[in-house]
Structures are given as structure tokens and as C-alpha cells.
Amino acid sequence: MRWLGAVQSLFFAGQIAHCMVLNGTQIVHELGSILSNGSSIYLPADADWDTETTQRFDTWHAPTYVVSVKPALTTDVQKVVRYATLHNISFLATGGGHGYSGSLGALQNGLELDLGYFNSVTVDAANNLMTVGGAVRFSDVEEPCYAVGKAFPVGACPCVGLAGASLGGGIGFYSGLYGAISDSLVSAEVITGTGALVTASESENSDLLWAIKGAGSSYGVATSLTYRVYDYLNDGYAMNADMLFSASQMSSLFTFAKSWLEKQRKELSITFSLIYVATLQEVIHASVPYALNLYEIGVEDLTAAVQYFNDTVASTAALQGVFLAFTQYAQYGFQQHPQNSSSFPYRDVAIQIDGSAASDDDVPIIDSFEREFRDRLVNISGKDELEVYMQFSHGDEGADAWFSAANVPKLRELKRRYDPLDLFRFYNSVDVD
Ligand SMILES: Cc1cc2nc3c(=O)[nH]c(=O)nc-3n(C[C@H](O)[C@H](O)[C@H](O)COP(=O)(O)OP(=O)(O)OC[C@H]3O[C@@H](n4cnc5c(N)ncnc54)[C@H](O)[C@@H]3O)c2cc1C
């Protein structure tokens, strides 16, 4: 229905979308009668709602649900998608629950299509392949790979969904070697917005494979994904070194980072994190993300920007839950894969910047400071327009910034083919029009 698409675009004007008034009990009854026995359905009032359904990492602009459906089989997922379409019910598939884009807040009182039962991991060492279910997390694949002498380029936090991350690219400390996680995606079983189950691979629906390797959550539900795995290096050991620097050393650190741009070893990833520790944060509730890509390291400009950041945070109690990370991967891994091999757009980034700030009470102040700081950095990013890693984005940057202006026309055309009703529209999505 078109009105739902219009609702999404109103989100950042401060208006929240409410999908049709859902009666969770009715859905339990109707879906319960058609799903296979192993499936489960929960209502928020159920005692085990918090433990049995996928909970979201962040309370900021969180989607809300009147019902959570956990299908057991791929055919059950198809039934849920068709049922939701028939009854005009807005829904979101959830994997690891770590999607934190503000765009998700547009889904209120919807249906959670919880992929929690799609949690299998199979490593085929002989063929260097790994097949996982749609809700498997980074932590679930490390041991099975290591046990057979293989490595896989997971991201930094173990609890993030592997499908969720890699459908939007997926970056981490192995990116310098292997590129984005999506670069290792070989094929996926996807239930599209038409309810069809299709294989996306080089030989079948290769255009869909291109699209889901970067903009994947706009096209359907991936119940099974097969990735390339790699012989592990260094007997499977990696070294992590944490060092503490004072703010006065910032200029030297950026000089060092700049000197590494051309010669960074592909095995090495560097992250400079700024964490203000004047007050001890207790529990993180609302975390407001911002991010951007830097293509050049202007030492003086960056040092001045960070100095401004430090001074402002130090003098503003409301901002003292901020976290800012500058991560530098070797470009080698990204550049092993041609630009047109997928919709993952940005392969020549010098530094990925992502920041968030946690607070329950001071979200407007935090939001406005982070936005202002992000906009300052855009001016020294080496590009005229904001470009951002979609998975770390705030959620209002738009498709050109997430996927690149060059990719958007093809992504739209594919969206019209695979999700013509725009069912998969709540997460930094590609528009149908
Ligand atoms: C603490 C934290 C650490 C992070 N670390 C990293 C990192 O190191 N590297 C990195 O690249 N990103 C990282 N991210 C960002 C992460 O990649 C995105 O937030 C990603 O969307 C999370 O996926 P999920 O499955 O956990 O989340 P969910 O909230 O479950 O899903 C997010 C989006 O992906 C879709 N989705 C999930 N699974 C499927 C599926 N099987 N089929 C179709 N759509 C699906 C959902 O519908 C939703 O639109 C991090 C995020 C957090 C909060």
C-alpha cells in the first residue's frame, strides 16, 4: 500500500508511523493454524517475551511489535510474508537485533518476523564454504571455522547478526584481508516481497545477489546464506593491542595514520577510539548513531575537529556518554573485488568514522551535537557529499549516501522487481520510486 511508503518519508519530520491496528491475539490464532508445529508465536504480555524473542540492542527509535512470530521452516517464512501482505501488516525480519538505524522507529505496533530458529552453521572445509541460517551471529561461526582450520571475516562485536551485517556489507578487523563480509557471500535463499523463494547466486538471479551484497535488507528475508571461508593464518591466532593516548597526542596519531595510508599491511586494522570517561556510564539505553567516510587524512583539520569535540564534551555533562571511533583498514581486501561486483559502494575509504552517545534523558542535545560534529567532518572528508557506511548510519542520510548515487537507479529497478509492494522498507531502504 502506498500510504505506508509515504509514512516512512515523514519519519524524520517527527511523525511516527502506525500501521493498521493489529490484533495480536487474532494473528496468533490465524497464523498459528497455518504454521508448522515447530514455529512459535509470542505476544508482548507473554512471560517469556523477553527471553524467547529477539530483543533490540538500542532503545533509540526502536520498532515496536504487537506480536512476534518465529517460523521454523522456510515455508513458514513464506506464509508469514504472504499473510502480512494480504492483511496489510507491517513487519520486520530480525536476526541479531543489532540494527540501530533510526529508520527502524517508523515501524510501530508491527509484526516481528523473528528468524531465531534459523540458527544452523555448517562448514564445508573441503570446498571452503560455510552455510548459515538467517539469525546466526558472528560469535556462532568463529569456533566452527577455527575447528577445521578456517577463518571468516566477522565484525568486531560477537552478538551482531551475520546475515544482518553482511546484507549491508559488513566490516571488521579482517576487512583489510578479505574486504566486506558481503564480498564472501556466494549465495542466499531469499523470500522476496512477492513471497517467492529464490536463490541468489552467480548462476541464478545474479542481479539479486548483486543487490543483497550491500542493500540486502530492502529485498527480502534471507533464510540461508553461503559464504566463502579461508584457510586461517598464524595458526588461527590474532593479536589485539590496546593502547591509551592522551588527547594532546592526537596530531601525532593522525600523522601516523596518514603515513600508513599507502603501506598499511593487510593484516593490520587500526582503531582510534575517543571515549569520555569523566562519569561512569551505567546501563546503555538510547544510543544515537552517526557515521561518515573519510577519504583523506588532513592532520591539522582532523586534530582541530577532535579538539573541538573534546572541549565541547568536557564542558557539557549531557554529552559525556559519547563514543567516537576512527577505524583504518588496509584497502587491499576491499580492492580485491571489482566496484561493480556488488552494491557495497565504498572501497577506497581512508578512515571509517562512527560515533554514538548513550543516554536516556539527553537524546535531543546529543543528537544535535553529533549531527553538527558529523557535518563539520564532512567538510574535511575529501568528498563534497556525505558518504556513509550504511550499517553505522543515523538513518536519514538517504539512499545516495548509503549505496552511492551510481548504484541507486539499478537498486530501484531491482526493488520494483523483487519487492514491488515495498514490504522491506524499514531499514535504510531503497525506494521503489
Ligand atoms: C554493538 C554493535 C556492534 C556492531 N559491530 C559491527 C561490526 O563490527 N561490523 C559491521 O559491519 N557492523 C556492525 N554493526 C552494525 C550491524 O552490521 C548492523 O546493525 C546490522 O544491521 C545488524 O544486524 P542484526 O541482524 O544484528 O540486526 P537486526 O536488527 O536483527 O536486523 C537489522 C536489519 O537487517 C535485516 N535482517 C537481519 N537478518 C536478516 C535476514 N536473515 N534476512 C533479511 N534481512 C535481515 C533486518 O530485517 C533489519 O532490517 C554493529 C552494531 C552494533 C549495535
UniProtKB/TrEMBL annotation:
Transmembrane segments: none annotated. Residues 1-19 form the signal peptide. Keywords: FAD, Flavoprotein, Oxidoreductase, Signal. The keyword Transcription does not apply. One of its GO terms (molecular function) is oxidoreductase activity. Belongs to the oxygen-dependent FAD-linked oxidoreductase family. This is FAD-binding domain-containing protein. It comes from Aspergillus sclerotiicarbonarius (strain CBS 121057 / IBT 28362).
